[in-house]
Amino acid sequence: MSDSPYIFDIAGSASFEQLVIENSFHKPVLVDFWAEWCAPCKALMPLLAQITEGYRGELLLAKVNCDIEQDIVARFGIRSLPTVVLFKNGQPVDGFTGAQPESAIREMLGPHVAEPAPAAADPMEAAQALFSEGRFADAEALLKVLLTENNEHAAALILYARCLAERGELGEAEVVLGAVKGDEHKQALAGARAQLTFLRQAFDLPEVASLKTRLAQNAEDDEASYQLAIQQLARQHYEPALDALLKLFIRNRNYADGAAHKTLLQVFDLLGNEHPLVTAYRRKLYQAIY
Q: Three-class SS string for the chain?
């Protein structure tokens, strides 16, 4: 048996059903049909293992010893070794026979297998990259490990709360943010709280289509402009939201007791000072004020 959680040996038809067919509904499974007497099989196997490990959980590898698993060999009509078959959603979708170079194998896998999370020495960097890609569940998994080791890791708590918020767990996200101690991550904490605010506000607002209809009828409908910006912020459509808020501020800076100005500052906290949108819109806001 392999020590890797992504690589396993098949032992019987029931094992194949569970480890290949069922797993393939969640992640692609590469099945390596091999035999002890097959020299090309033994040359190919470590390459397949290396490629699988490189995907860091986005690809699984199942090894079928054809001398032992005759029923599985007959089921899939395997006639030459090595044969490698890729399974997705319970079905074979691609594959090859004979030893292949790494480039050819990766080319075959490309359309079917998600790219792994960027490698990073710091797990926080990897979690942040996953969050930025919208892979909130994967980011959560990394952050849970970090928080198991140190439940006061402020940056991990803040990002974990943002993951929870993105999947609608607003109350739990608020509790997590309440556990953050110290002022070192003050801006990131303010940004996370702003995200919760936008998501909560959006929940009670009219649908985006309805707001767009109102604005098509009256482009200076301040309430519709502001509410649409909040809906956009809740969906992370930051640039159109910032643009709408700035125009509202210029047109009516006193709307709802300065709501446009306050919300612009919240978005700046959410995105951080280094974000190019913050740099651009902070300058535009300054010009509008002065």
A: CCCCCCEEECCCHHHHHHHHHHHHHCCCEEEEEECCCCHHHHHHHHHHHHHHHHCCCCCEEEEEECCCCHHHHHHHCCCCCCEEEEEECCEEEEEEECCCCHHHHHHHHCCCCCCCCCCCCCHHHHHHHHHHCCCHHHHHHHHHHHHHHCCCCHHHHHHHHHHHHHCCCHHHHHHHHHCCCCCCCHHHHHHHHHHHHHHHHHHCCCCHHHHHHHHHHCCCCHHHHHHHHHHHHHCCCHHHHHHHHHHHHHHCCCCCCCHHHHHHHHHHHHHCCCCHHHHHHHHHHHHHHC
Residues annotated catalytic, as ranges: 38, 41
**pLDDT tops 90 at residue 74:** yes
pTM of the model as a whole: 0.53
Domains of the chain with CATH codes: 7-109 (3.40.30.10), 126-184 (1.25.40), 205-289 (1.25.40.10)
What number is the average pLDDT over the span 46-63? 93
